[in-house]
Amino acid sequence: MKKVTALLLSCLLGQIAFGAVYELRTYVTNPGKLDNLNARFRDHTVGLFKKHGIESVGYWVPTDGESSKNTLIYVIKHKSRDAAKTSWKAFGSDPAWKKVARESQVDGKILAQRPDSVFMNETNYSPDWKNGKAEKDDVFELRIYKAAKGKLGKLDARFRDHTIKLFDRHGMKSVSYWHPVDEPDSKDTLIYVIKHENREAARKSWKAFIADPDWKKAAKASGVGRLAKPPAATYMKPTDYSAIR
Questions:
Q1: What range does the domain containing 130 cover?
Q2: By C-alpha distance, which of 194, 128, 197 is closest to 166?
Q3: Which of 119, 133, 182, 190 is 20 to 30 A (C-alpha) from 18?
Q4: pTM of the shown model
């Protein structure tokens, strides 16, 4: 039994080490430095990411409050967790990056704190996103759900079998759905991004979704119960260099 358990654990760790992973990163800048950060990503960082095997997925700036002035949220993709480690090491030691980092901060340090990073696996019901016509009023929404203990599987089933279809019915386009790789968040957290035509459309869509009898029926029958805490929602606008628009 111990040998079987060890083998299963080894296989699981191997999947984590060698399967494709996404990374959600959040940067908070010092006052007045968000434009500098965006310029650095637009003109240098995205290209250097590609050079070192890091795929850029999407880059967004929150639309509301102080975070609209100092925060960049983005998702990148690595071939594996081990590849991520190798890529970040190569990126950090690249002379071109060191030069850009140094020259971009001559008027003061850009970041106010260390970036926040969450490694994620894509769920098996995550759609294949394809950009449509991009409009200036388009808005994306990053949502983070914490399921009650032992209920993440039921939450996934509800999204897979019901929620995504109902989102589409009410004008909300699913971009991607992920689970964090690392514990404890891997046990209870769902992270996803959806797209709305604009903020007013988002408000109307959520109102119609919540009132939809099919949603009420699915929610009641799903066995999910109440979430461990209210969902965290962030409305965002894509940057001009974001792959997802």
A1: 123-238
A2: 194
A3: 190
A4: 0.91
Q: Could you tell me if 171 and 125 are in contact, meaning their C-beta atoms sit under 8 angstroms apart?
A: no
Residue whose C-alpha is closest to residue 121's, from 177, 55, 193, 52: 177
Q: Splitting the chain (245 residues) into consecutive groups of 10 residues, what average pLDDT does each group show? A: 40 52 98 97 98 98 98 98 98 98 93 97 95 86 98 98 98 98 98 97 98 98 96 97 95
Question: Is 151 in a helix, a strand, or coil?
Answer: coil
Contacts of 108 (CB under 8 A, 6+ apart): 30, 33
Q: Amino acid identity, residue 78? A: H
Q: Are residues 155 and 94 in the same domain?
A: no
Residue 1 confidence (pLDDT): 45
Same domain for 74 and 30?
yes
Query: 209 and 170 in contact (C-beta within 8 Å)?
Result: yes
Residue 160 near residue 179 (C-beta atoms within 8 A) = no
Helix (H, G, I), strand (E, B) or coil at 56: strand
Could you write out the three-class secondary structure of 133-198?
CCCCCCEEEEEEEECCCCCHHHHHHHHHHHHHHHHHHCCCEEEEEEEECCCCHHHCEEEEEEEECC
Cα distances (Å, whole numbers) of residue 163 to 16, 64, 153, 187: 28, 26, 14, 20
pLDDT of 8 reads 38
